[in-house]
Amino acid sequence: MRHRSKGSLAFRTLVFTAVLIGVVPCTRAQAPFPTRPITMVVPFAAGGPTDVMGRILAQQMSQTLGQQIVIENVTGAGGTIGTLRVARAAPDGYTMILGNLGTHAAASGIYKSLSYDPRTDFEPVMIIGNTPMVLVVKNGLPVSTLKDLLALARAKPGKVAFGSAGVGSISHLTLILFNSLTNAQVQHVPYRGLSQAVNDVLAGQIDGVFDQAVTAVPHIRSGGEKAIVVTAMSRTPQLPDIPTSIEAGLPDLQTNAWTALFFPKATPKAIVERMNAAVDRAMRVDAIARQMAELGADLPPSDRRSPQALAELVRTEVGKWVPVIRATGVAE
Question: What domains appear along the chain, each with residue ranges and CATH number?
Answer without folding.
Answer: 38-130+258-328 (3.40.190.150), 132-230 (3.40.190.10)
